Amino acid sequence: MSRQSVAKAHQKIQELSWEPAYHEPVSQYGTDYTFRKAQKKDPLKQVLRSYFPMQEEKDHRVYGASDGAIRGNMFRQVQERWLEWQKLFLSIIPLPEISAARAMPLLFRTVPNPELHNGQAIQMIDEVRHSTIQQNLKRLYMNNYIDPAGFNSSLRDFQSDYCGTIGRQFAEGFITGDAITAASIYLTIVAETAFTNTLFVAMPAEAAANGDYLLPTVFHSVQSDESRHISNGYATLLMALADEDNHQLLARDLRYAWWNNHRVVDAAIGTFIEYGTKDRRKDRESYAEMWRRWIYDDYYRSYLVPLEKYGLEIPHDLIEESWNQIWNKGYVHEVAQFFATGWLANYWRIDPMTDKDFEWFEYKYPGWYDKYGAWWENYNRLATPNGHKPIVFEDVDYEYPHRCWTCMVPCLVREDMVMAKVDGQWRTYCHEMCKWTDETAFRPTYQGRQTPNMGKLIGHREWETLYHGWNWADVVSDMGFVRDDGKTMVAQPHLDLDPSKMWTLDHLRKCPPLASPNVLLNEMSDDERTAFAARYVKGGPAGRPAPADA
Amino acid sequence: MTTTQDSPKTERSVPKPVFTDAEAGAQEFPDSNSRRYNYYTPQKRKQTHYEDVTVEVQPDPRHYLSQGWLYGFSDGRGGYPLDWTVLKAWGSDKPSPQRGPGTGGLFVKEWPATGWHEFRDPNEEWELTLYRYNSNVVRQVTQNVEAAKQSKAFEQWNTNWVRFVEQHVGAWMHVDHGLGLYLYANANRRAPTNMHNNAISVNSMHRIRAAQDLALYNLTLSEEIEGFDGSAHLETWNNDPAWQGVRDVAEQLTAIDDWCEAIFAANVVFEPLVGELFRSQLVQQASPRNGDFVTPTVVGAAEYDFAERDLRYTTAMFELLTNDKEFADHNKSILQDWAAKWTAQSLAAARALQPLWSQPDAKPPRFEDGLDRVKSRFSGIVTSLGLEEPKELSL
């Protein structure tokens, strides 16, 4: 179709919507937002006559490349260090995608703009595309990559694994609670507009540098749909801004959504990009540099800041604090170190860092070696079983962290840990903002205003709780992270596939039982708890316990 | 003779290919040959591609979701509550594992824990199939309309037929659009498994596409036929008494809270009794007699969507529930009530459409004959599900 006819066609399909004359459509989701003064424009201007063939053509390219990768023996050049992290990523991401599809109906009744509903329906089916095309990519990896373990069990694994649970927020946050908070602000305004840049653009570039050109093929195809979703979000945001009563809620939701996305996405993608790569060229961008470009410049400065003049209260302080966390407080490094500490509770293999890696980290993040170098040397030393226990049980100057109740990433920047008794339970938080999210934002009143539609944080949010007092061999066995010989673990702290070098349940049997930090916290007396907190915040960096005289 | 010296070549900074030998089969070790998704049991002997990309993507606390849902609505409920429909699949009443300190994951060993997870879309729809199918439809429809334009086919239409198409064929686009968005797309948030919700979302796109097919066909006719009123369908939909019954039922369908009732009422009752009556017994029959060989190709695409794909998954979905080993009677009793309620409503809407049969110059087969045919087909659908033919069908 010509451009003119696309415009005419889009104009024509506006005739399809109608106001109910006899019965209102069912209203199943609530919002505390109002849209009394909303302007009504669909920025998408997409008609299915052109949409379906366009997507089919994109599919042709994706599947053609997939065939080519197999015929061209791509996996002879793929870095195992990289593909192992895809076991985590591709176990999580199909759920957020499909959850985004499920989120669209939350907006039908709450955003009174029939024109926009067309775009939301297209987003719904886009998301079905993303979820299934990603499952298919994982299937291809499982069939063609040297080690299928972790790919073959991925949708069991991620549902019980602590990393998978962190990632699951990036799905459940879309489909519950206040409809606008969830399906618009958290999903489209922040997750899709800001963080898909690192997820679907920056990360695939790193994949290509590690010999994997299928991830970019699939994810750039996915990202080409995201621009439509960003338009959906932008249109809804402008509608919300038109009503001043919404400004307070927008400010709340931007703060929550920004901070949670930063905590979750930067933790995961930062780790994949920095610790999953073998590309140590000095002029390749670090995650911090990518973040500065994609998130700070492209999203914050180019997208968010111009909205300030329309009354949007931008969380400048949190954006700067996120940067501070990444650049000054080593957030990504702390997370990667923790993932490696907890390798035995995962379902992928984590390659030790080498001198070449150390050199790169020191170049990109001056001072890195003094903080993290010795620990990674210990990780390397303890990688294959040789009479010792996994690193988490060995004396390597690392204190196992407490977990953040809100974002579920552990409280790794120790000085930022805060504690509160909420809903009758003592909880630790990785940062004041995560405490605010639980204590203040996800509540039925906000700054004196009734917010009856706001969602709730639920579930067993500290993974260790379920296994408090268990032997580690039983933990790993219960979660099913075991290979088909019934004893060799899926996870390994190295890439050597020689069975004699691989950890088994027998090694774990000799380890101390798992202790839940949160259970222990709640067993403490008030004095003990105060002393614990005072000491905890003096720990770090790199997980170091507080000095004895602290 | 002068010699030239090669200028020193600066090597570009790009990642270098490295031979890693990380392909399948390069080594033998535990799991090295475990190359299938091992977390689900296929419906048939072998796992299908469809199952691989669909099953278990939407988690369930009764299975692997040991930490439970993490975010809830204001009432504290998260995920996909089973009581979003009153129908039940076996295991529905069994409580979820109660996990807490030291319980472990309490993973359900006998899976599926509920009959809901037995459902598989017989169309095996996922992204590759849905785009292929719908692209083929829009291409074929576009080509049909284009060929008709080239051959001046619309010039054969008599005035009454032009009025019929602009008003009545046009009016149906609103049914497709309204249900596509507010019934089917809406229901894709409601069902307890990914298999259900994906099938429903594909159904939604069929209806929205069919609505747009009609709207864009209407646009072409406005450009091709002098005097064709491209907005007449709005007046018809809003005010024509013959259409108000259909509109009333369509709106009621979008007002249903229970997702199973919505799919059942729309696909088992309304579509056979009203949709197919309008499309197959009226438009498809009347068009050729009035010199129109184009409209049936547009309307026929939507008819195929329903008859060959949407009804197919719907039947598979409800057959499981009416044959459920624990709740078959419970389900049949409710479905029987729904069938009665929606049959009465749909038949009233169908009868209100009767004046349309007399509008074309060349008349289609009699309304009553068409109605008998769709009743007969409907009867076959409900009895195949193990339900009785509702008595409202003969009223």
TrEMBL record, chain A:
Matching entries from InterPro entries are given as: Ferritin-like_SF, Phenol_Hydrox, RNR-like
The record, for SUPFAM superfamilies, names: Ferritin-like
A Pfam family that this protein carries is Phenol_Hydrox
Q: Which reaction does it catalyse?
A: propane + NADH + O2 + H(+) = propan-2-ol + NAD(+) + H2O
> Recorded E.C. number(s)?
1.14.13.227
- According to its UniProt record, this protein's enzyme class is oxidoreductase
Which keywords label this protein?
Answer: Monooxygenase, Oxidoreductase
| Top-level division of the source organism's lineage | Bacteria
Listed GO molecular functions? Answer: monooxygenase activity
Which named protein is this? Answer: propane 2-monooxygenase
| Organism phylogeny | Bacteria, Bacillati, Actinomycetota, Actinomycetes, Propionibacteriales
From TrEMBL, chain B:
Q: What is its EC number?
A: 1.14.13.227
Catalytic activity reads:
propane + NADH + O2 + H(+) = propan-2-ol + NAD(+) + H2O
Q: Which domain of life is it from?
A: Bacteria
Q: What are the transmembrane regions?
A: none
Instruction: List the residue ranges of the region (Disordered).
Output: 1-37
Q: Which Pfam families match?
A: Phenol_Hydrox (PF02332)
- InterPro entries for the chain: Ferritin-like_SF (IPR009078), Phenol_Hydrox (IPR003430), RNR-like (IPR012348)
Q: What is this protein called?
A: propane 2-monooxygenase
